[in-house]
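Title: Prediction job returns without error message
Component: structure pipeline
Severity: low
Priority: P3
Assignee: unassigned

Description:
Job completed but the reporter wants confirmation the result is attached to the right record. Sequence as submitted:
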Amino acid sequence: MPFWDRLFNPKTVIGGRSPHRELVESVGLLLLAAREKRDDSLRNSPRLAELLELLWHQDDVSLDAVREALGSVEKVSRDVIATLARRVREASSSPPSSPEAVYEAVVALLHEDLAAGRPYPLPFGQLTITQETGMRLVHAVTLARILLPAELHEPVCDALVTNSHALQDGITAEARFPYQHLLRNQIHRYLVAFSPQAIPHFWRMAAQEDTSEEFWPVLGRIRDRNAVPYLLELIPRADYPVESGFWNVGGMRQTEDGHRPLAFGGQWEIIAALTEIADVRAVPVLQAMAQRSDYARYHVIKGFEILDRQRENNRLAEQAGLSVRTILRNAQDGSADLLRLAAPPEDAQTLLRPVVPAASTTATGELLRPSDEP
């Protein structure tokens, strides 16, 4: 529609009140509330489905309404919404009948984008991704952050691991995706938006030695108290005693069950997250880590580099001790008082003080004197 026609059209956003204004405002509040509740309530929301059905319309007013409502959570360009609308119309000529089916139809397109964002090989075995592929991934993760489909967390995690190698292997500035940090940041923010129970694939990959490093920044961002048991479960892998249970494979320390200890950076991020959450359930584990500063000195050969682990262990022990003191001081639920030594009350010293008889008290010798009364 030409600009001047839109300007004087009373049904447009520019010329007058949008016919979808009430829908845009209600869905915007709904999306913000879903982020706070961290649940799956958007899937069956009739209001959100009503908004997404506007993607099957071909007028600019409908697309602007979708962009404005989704933009209440995360800024989305009009081109992204237009491309999404074109694709939903190509997949189906009309929207599905139920709210959940409408939601899943849009999520299925995001899943396709995540699966298609695979790097391609360059000479000498290196990998890279084009800017077009990279931006397609960014837009898919951005929309996933808004709609919060938990089922996409598995392809999102895979995309982060797969493309991290491509982002590192680019041999020229043109070959490398210039928005790599934006992609990683969007993925990190997407993953921390869910309750820990909803993203089991993330916890599996965070515990694996060959993929955990990509998820360390996510561990450090977690602020959900429900995630404390999951974080504590990762620490034993990082806290095996050096003196027992280890055997050497290719110069790398490894436990008898095949698990390598979580590296220094991962442990550091976990301690930081537990400190911010301030849940006293973490105190016993952190206290155990704080007492591990007497590790035997040993080295790990990694390529041509010799890493001194004693220095790292001492730093972790010191940080764990600081974390314990911070948690006990700032625990949110007040249960930290149970782990503190109880301070004696101000009048505790008076409890065993000899009683001074008052002037009106009957003398001891008069207690057994016969009474003159009949």
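Comment from assignee: result matches the submitted record. The two ends are 117 Å apart (CA to CA).
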